[in-house]
Design a protein that fits this description.
This is DUF3037 domain-containing protein. The chain is α+β, with helices and mostly antiparallel strands. Helices cover 35% and strands 26% of the residues.
Length: 126
Amino acid sequence: MTRLAYQYVVLRCVPRPDREEFVNVGVVLFCEATGFLEVACRVDHDRLRALDPRLDLAQVEAGLAFVVGVCAGDERGGSAARAPLGQRFGFLKAPRSTVIQPGPVHGGLTADPARQLEHLLERLVG
């Protein structure tokens, strides 16, 4: 069985950066060897509202739709979606000060990037 190197970042929703609280809402996984760049998301509205009852959940969903567009290479991702896969992952893992923020980059080995993404979503997002 061939084990392939991959990198991933956990996407965090940070409703109030001043309080440094966040809820994990997704995982972006990049496997250069297979040309795999995908995101899996799960948003727990109740947990987010517990951190900030005024949080605009539509803004959270729009931020995640943008990430989906970048990964898929479609118009939702704007100009970033037209870059090569490695550059798209680099764009997504870069720190930013929006409500959706990437955590640190991690890596590993897998025989099945899609299955690994689902495993990471279940383990890190819930």
